[in-house]
Task: inverse folding
């Protein structure tokens, strides 16, 4: 029998509400905010998304080979600053304190170009700067298990960073976590600790699954890009772009070298 955490089991049925509950979030590492964004605001985002999708993405788009769901195209103006919506700062302040910054804002979508599952993983191992980060997943479409909605392993963030980056094998642990796959409607959003394990199934319904993924962190992190609220708490900043350049030698540089050698040997 695998171990379960009583403290997580005790609150997992309180994981979704119109009101954020910081003590539940601390235990579960994930929380579903219901009806958190005014319909007029969401409708504007949806209209901008639809115009953008029809004009620039529907025919063909540059799918990211390393992570197909992660949209590579530049977002139009309103979608690029969605993270400024005060409903997000209101929740983030209760986690990080009054000074909150943006780490990254992007879209993760499952349409005909990227319908496949996303394997079980945590995000922290892909991040730079400090590890105290959360994702806000903001649906602009209906989201459910049929169109590739995400599944969260409640409480798994308590294990912290697991030491490598890639697909987690849950069978290699003595612990078991409650799995939740929340159905989401536009106006809801999910907040997730970046160390939390998550995955998603394929889109089998054919209804496009459209979500923003905004990563937020305390404003003392030197990788911050913009403020959600409060003031900067750091004097130094650096760009996370092309982070491989920070290393004289590394795992990624070795992989690149081996891949070049392999290609040369095969030629
Ligand atoms: O879009 C999804 O279903 C998951 C995406 C994700 O977890 C990621 O890109 O890190
Ligand atoms: Fe992820």
Result:
């Amino acid at each position: 029998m695998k171990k379960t955490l009583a403290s997580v089991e005790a609150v997992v049925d309180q994981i979704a509400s119109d009101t954020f509950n910081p003590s539940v979030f601390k235990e579960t590492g994930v929380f579903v905010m219901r009806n958190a964004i005014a319909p007029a605001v969401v409708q504007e985002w949806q209209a901008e998304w639809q115009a953008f999708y029809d004009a620039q993405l529907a025919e063909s788009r540059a799918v990211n080979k390393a992570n197909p769901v992660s949209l590579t195209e530049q977002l139009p103006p309103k979608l690029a600053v969605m993270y400024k919506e005060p409903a997000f700062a209101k929740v983030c302040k209760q986690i990080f304190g009054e000074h909150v910054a943006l780490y990254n804002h992007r879209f993760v979508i499952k349409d005909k170009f990227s319908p496949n599952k996303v394997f079980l993983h945590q995000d922290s191992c892909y991040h730079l700067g400090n590890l105290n980060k959360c994702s806000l997943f903001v649906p602009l479409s209906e989201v459910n298990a049929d169109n590739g909605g995400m599944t969260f392993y409640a409480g798994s963030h308590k294990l912290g960073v697991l030491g490598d980056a890639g697909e987690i094998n849950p069978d290699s642990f003595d612990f078991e976590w409650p799995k939740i796959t929340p159905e989401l409607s536009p106006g809801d959003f999910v907040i997730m600790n970046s160390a939390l394990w998550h995955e998603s199934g394929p889109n089998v319904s054919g209804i496009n699954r459209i979500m923003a993924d905004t990563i937020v962190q305390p404003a003392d992190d030197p990788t911050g890009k913009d403020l959600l609220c409060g003031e900067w708490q750091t004097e130094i900043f650096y760009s996370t772009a092309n982070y491989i350049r920070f290393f004289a030698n590394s795992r990624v540089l070795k992989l690149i070298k081996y891949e070049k050698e392999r290609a040369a040997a095969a030629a």
Notes: Helices lie at 6-9, 22-28, 39-57, 77-80, 86-96, 251-266.
